[in-house]
Amino acid sequence: MENKELQFKTNINCGGCVSRVKPGLDSTEGIREWNVDIDNQDKILTVQSEGITADEVIAIVQSKGFKAEALD
Hints:
This protein is of the alpha+beta class. It has a single domain (3-71), classed as Alpha-Beta Plaits, CATH 3.30.70. Helix content is 31%, strand content 36%.
């Protein structure tokens, strides 16, 4: 299983927003660690992956009512 860092541009822009996505990201197998830089204008979500794909992370974020776009 490949470990890698995935980054996404999001609209998660405050602590309340982070708390809405937290249960989904915390409970997903394949995510070792994650954080959102709400001070960055692009609200960058960084995920330390242990096998989860970018599409799977995007689906989790979208299921919580937010947008996410994978960055290269």
